[in-house]
Design brief:
The chain has helices spanning 123-132, 145-148, 173-180, 182-196, 210-219, 240-248, 268-280, 310-316, 357-360, 373-377, 384-392, 396-401, 412-416, 423-441; strands spanning 23-25, 31-35, 45-46, 53-54, 59-62, 71-72, 77-86, 92-100, 159-163, 201-206, 226-231, 263-267, 286-292, 300-305, 324-329, 336-337, 351-356. By secondary structure, it is of the alpha/beta class. The strands form four sheets. Strands 1-14-13-17-15-16 form a six-stranded mixed β-sheet. Strands 2-8-7-4 form a four-stranded antiparallel β-sheet, with no helix packed on it.
Length: 442
């Protein structure tokens, strides 16, 4: 029987409509808006000026602190202006807007498709390069990768776990990456292992991707340090704590990080980005994005330059369907609805989901019937119905004691609620208030 995590979870319809669509390169837009905050942590600090000429890969904004990430130009051209733009979160954030002129890359970037397997950099040099190239977690969390590669002095990494789960319905970017860039991704795994100074890596892949499991199993057949583990299809298996539980059967304590149990988790997309950074000296300025939906004419997986307007991706998939009710950045479970199609692609943009009107509408909220389904499916062992009530009543001290900050915002509770209660919406609000309260105490 395939492995999975031990607590909660759901199995929403998979709808992997673009699973067999090879990665296509999207044409470069005429203008890009590059947000300087595309990661967890402090925004990067802008280092270019209006009318300055830039090349592909050039530093636009420098890391603004320990938990922050560099931002690089995805295009060549002239800086048109620096202003606040609406991003995929729905908030206005500072961005560098560039008018595109040609496609001139920095000479230091290796543009050839040749696979470079030999790793010549030391552990410290790898970490420095990863930081320099602005690599962040590409599974959605966008945590700066160089920070994960430096565990606290009193903790030791023992195993690297690669997240190839892609449990979010509709999304197939990681699936296609594993199939088409598997060799490069595996060199990225070796680079991460060298940086962490460990000898074991495990790639977890849900068994609805048998071709990816077979492909990577063949590629790692002669490597005793890397193994591929098929996993049962169970959402949200891509969550760090759930993946660790599924793969090595260790539970990360409440409020603690994976390193507490000797594990470091990176997404397969991150491993590929690390390969390109270390072996090709290529900063993170493009990524694979799935554009999909039941009414979409041509669901696709696109290699997209950061800063490209969402509308360009939709056009490449055949245009906006007439029955569109909502456009979501990400998947249906954890994604967020866009309020403008001008929102630029960022490092954390894994997909654009176009939902038909019939599925996008929320049904009328009914009273809680005390069925406990939300409790049963919560992968963190929380009581979502209670957390929602505590938020409604402004009882944030109690909500903190009930571990609201442990919520991974997977949406399983809202998915199964027969009364259509907006559990996750209220829990997110509660997390924000409790988080602010905790910071104020410090």
């Amino acid at each position: 029987m395939a492995k999975t995590f031990s607590l909660g979870g759901v199995h929403p319809p998979e709808n992997k409509l673009s699973a067999n669509k090879k990665i296509e390169v999207l044409s470069i837009p005429e203008i890009v808006s590059v947000p300087v905050s595309q990661h967890i942590g402090a925004p990067a600090k802008v280092k270019v000026k209006r009318n300055e000429e830039v090349k592909v890969g050039q530093l636009l904004a420098e890391s603004g602190g320990f938990i922050s990430a560099n931002i690089h130009s995805p295009v060549s051209g002239k800086v048109f202006k620096i202003e606040n733009v609406l991003d995929t979160s729905g908030y206005k954030r500072q961005a560098v807007i560039i008018k595109v002129e040609g496609d001139e890359w920095l000479e230091t970037i290796d543009k050839t498709p040749d696979l470079i397997s030999k790793i010549t950099l030391s552990s410290e040099e790898i970490i420095a390069r990863v930081k320099e190239c602005g690599i962040v977690g590409l599974g959605g969390a966008t945590f700066p990768s160089h920070v994960k590669l430096r565990p606290p002095d009193d903790m030791t990494a023992k195993v690297l776990i690669l997240n190839g789960v892609e449990c979010e319905p509709y999304l197939t970017a990681d699936h296609r990456l594993m199939l088409e860039k598997g060799k490069e991704m595996l060199v990225g795994v070796k680079i991460l292992m060298k940086a962490l100074k460990i000898k074991e890596a495990i790639i977890g892949i849900e068994n609805n991707k048998p071709d990816a499991i077979e492909h990577l199993t063949k590629l790692t057949a002669s490597d005793s340090e890397i193994s591929v583990v098929p996993l049962k299809v169970q959402y949200p298996q891509g969550g760090e704590k759930q993946l660790i539980d599924a793969v090595i059967k260790r539970q990360v304590p409440s409020g603690k990080l994976p390193i507490e149990v000797g594990a470091v988790v990176h997404n397969v997309g991150t491993a590929f980005a690390v390969y390109e950074a270390v072996q090709k000296n290529k900063p993170l300025f493009e990524r694979i994005v799935t554009v999909t939906g039941k009414s979409v004419k041509n669901p696709v997986n696109l290699m997209v330059r950061i800063g490209t307007p969402t509308s360009n991706l939709i056009e490449a998939a055949g245009g906006l369907p007439e029955d569109t009710g909502k456009v979501i950045s990400g998947g249906p479970m954890m994604g967020k609805a866009l309020n403008t199609l001008d929102a630029p692609v960022a490092k954390g943009t894994s997909g654009i989901l176009i939902m038909p009107d019939t599925e996008a509408k929320r049904r009328e909220v009914q009273p809680c019937i005390r069925c406990s389904k939300c409790v049963t499916v919560c992968p963190m062992g929380l009581e979502p119905y209670l957390l929602m009530t505590l938020t409604q009543k402004d009882m944030y001290e109690r909500e903190e004691k009930e571990r609201v900050m442990d919520c991974i915002e997977c949406g399983s509770c809202s998915f199964v609620c027969p009364s259509d209660r907006p559990l996750l919406d209220y829990i997110r609000l509660g997390k924000g208030r409790v988080g602010a309260m905790m910071r104020a105490r410090k």
